[in-house]
Amino acid sequence: MNTKKISISILAFALAATSAFAWSKKSENLGNLGRMYISVGGGINTSKMKAPATGETSSPTGAVGSFAINAPVFKPGVNAFKDIKWAGVDASVFFNYSYSGDYSLGGTSFDFSQYGVGAALTPYLNFETSLPVLKAIKPFGIAYAGYSWLDASYGGNNMSDNFFVYGVGGGVEFVILDNLSLTPHWIWHGNAESGMPCYQSVGAELSYWFTDQFCFSVFWDHNLGYDYSGASFNGDLKHGDIIGAKFKIGFLR
């Protein structure tokens, strides 16, 4: 599988969809959904791994980074959805990276880094209110697919793997004020690699748009954990947490 061609095709599809459907004037009560923007983020990654045979635990601190482009494919009340003000669809492409930090269990140290590329679709409902606070409520679903590369070091041995990844989930964006929104979410993450565990995560993001062009947000993601049994290592991830920030540049479309 030529991953470079897949990545280029995903990006070309997203940009074509944006050009075809997403040109519009500014909308009020917008939040993040229905807005075109580029996002760059980073944060710290903390986790707790447990060896089931001995009960020993290790809790290192790592790091994460991300880049994404979000675009409204169908925007409520605009172009193809000009008669539909209660629903919309966003598309995005993304790149992410994570580093676990150094685990130490049974006298052996190990760590891993993982990066991936992919694309996502986010259909949502759009319920605007006339209240001075809580301007809009936007329940949404999300589905993504992509490719991931994993590099690991265990007991002096280096290993690498790559595989197809996918996931589904949902949440609600609460547009508290015209420029302030809170977005809790849940996502189930799967993959097509034999022996690689699937997992669930929950989290939230608080975003503030200083202007239509600039946004700062803070986010938290909580990994609910998984059991892993590999050829050279058995361990349970009890939980993992990512706390970070994102800077977004918006474009009126």
Please tag this protein with its features.
mainly beta; 253 residues; 10-stranded antiparallel β-barrel; elongated; 14 strands; 1 helix
Describe the model.
This protein is mostly beta strands. Helix content is 8%, strand content 64%. It is built from 1 helix and 14 strands; from the N terminus they run αββββββββββββββ. The two termini are 35 Å apart.
Residues in helices, as a percent range: under 10%
**Strand residues, percent:** over 45%
As a whole number of angstroms, the C-alpha radius of gyration is 20 Å
Question: Biggest sheet, open or closed, and with what strands and sense?
Answer: 10 strands, antiparallel, barrel
Topology (elements, then pairings):
Elements: H1 3-21, E1 36-50, E2 57-58, E3 61-74, E4 87-99, E5 103-105, E6 108-125, E7 127-128, E8 136-154, E9 157-177, E10 180-191, E11 199-209, E12 214-223, E13 226-229, E14 234-251
Antiparallel strand pairs: 1-2, 1-3, 1-14, 3-4, 4-6, 5-6, 6-8, 7-8, 8-9, 9-10, 10-11, 11-12, 12-14, 13-14
Please outline what is shown here:
By secondary structure, the chain is mainly beta. The chain is 8% helix and 64% strand.
